Structure formats: C-alpha cells, structure tokens
UniProtKB/TrEMBL annotation:
This protein's UniProt keywords: Membrane, Transmembrane, Transmembrane helix
Highest taxon, organism lineage: Bacteria
Transmembrane region(s): 9-26
InterPro entries noted in UniProt: Redoxin, Thioredoxin-like_sf, Thioredoxin_domain, Thioredoxin_ResA/DsbE_sf
Protein name in UniProt: TlpA family protein disulfide reductase
Amino acid sequence: MKKLFKNEWLNIILIVIIIAMILPQTRTPIAIVFNKLIASNPSVTDVEERPQIESYNWILEDRFKNEVDFSQFKGKVILINYWATWCPPCIAEMPSLEEVYQDYKDRVVFLFISGEDLETSQGFMNAKGYDMPVYRMKTNYPDPLEGYKLPTSYLIDKNGRIVIKKEGAADWNSKGFRNTLEELLED
C-alpha cells in the first residue's frame, strides 16, 4: 500500500510539471530557472586554437540610434553577447552578466547585441534594472563572430583573438571568468 501511495504522488508531481511546461504563463519562468541551474562556467580556448577576428569592419547601432564603429574597439578586451528578450537561456544569464558589467564596464567593452528593435531590448533592460548597453547590427558581423544560436558570447583579447566562445547560458560572474578578464586586461 505504501509503495502505491508513493507512486501516486510521483505521478501527480510529474503531471503538475508537464502541465506547468505546457502553459505559456509558467513555461518561460520554469525554463529560466532550469537554465540558471545548468549554466556552466565559460571555458577558455587553448592559446594555439584561438581564432582571430578577420576584420573590425562592422557597424552597430546603439539605443540612441547612433552608429557605432566596431573598429574603435580594436586593441581592447571585448565581450560580445548575442541575446533576445524572448530567449530563456539569455534571460537566465543576464544577472551574472550585469554583475560583471558593473565591475568591468570602465575597462572592458561590452556589446549586448539583439536582433530585436532597440525599443524592445532597451525596454527589457530598463524593466529588469540592468544598465548593460544594447545594440543592433547595421552591417553583417565579421567572421568568425556569428550569433545564430542564442545566447552566444565571445570574449576577445586585445589582439583580436577569441579567448572564449560560449553557446548557451553561462555563469559569467564566476571567479574563473573574472580571473580570465584580469589576465587579459594585464596583457
């Protein structure tokens, strides 16, 4: 009898989870929590395997509709994050990105790039209380900085080499990532 009772509760819990995942009102929050739980630390690419940015010929648009020439960031440490307001893994990693941004915004270039209109992406940032700068692409990205899978992030060193490429949610506010930033800023 006890075994039957335990199985019934397990079945009830599974049914509740399935219903919660089907309902649009609960699906996104559950997906965000799940992505936070599975977010991994971004791993550094071995020095000899780091791809080089082919060109700095790329024009972005900021939230004020000003053109931003990517070439002005040549020689700096850059973090690029492709994201969207509707993307649960993107939303899951935003708090950790905001914490890193607040601590490094004066020493690292942060480019949070969304394919959505700037009013939508900036409205999202404002609603969440984030200060991170949002951009849209006006021209195609230079190779190899593709962002088809969301979120995709790149950490680029001062020489234009990709130190980290991370697809999916990550914990950017980890000690390991901060150590990597410090090393790149010292070089």
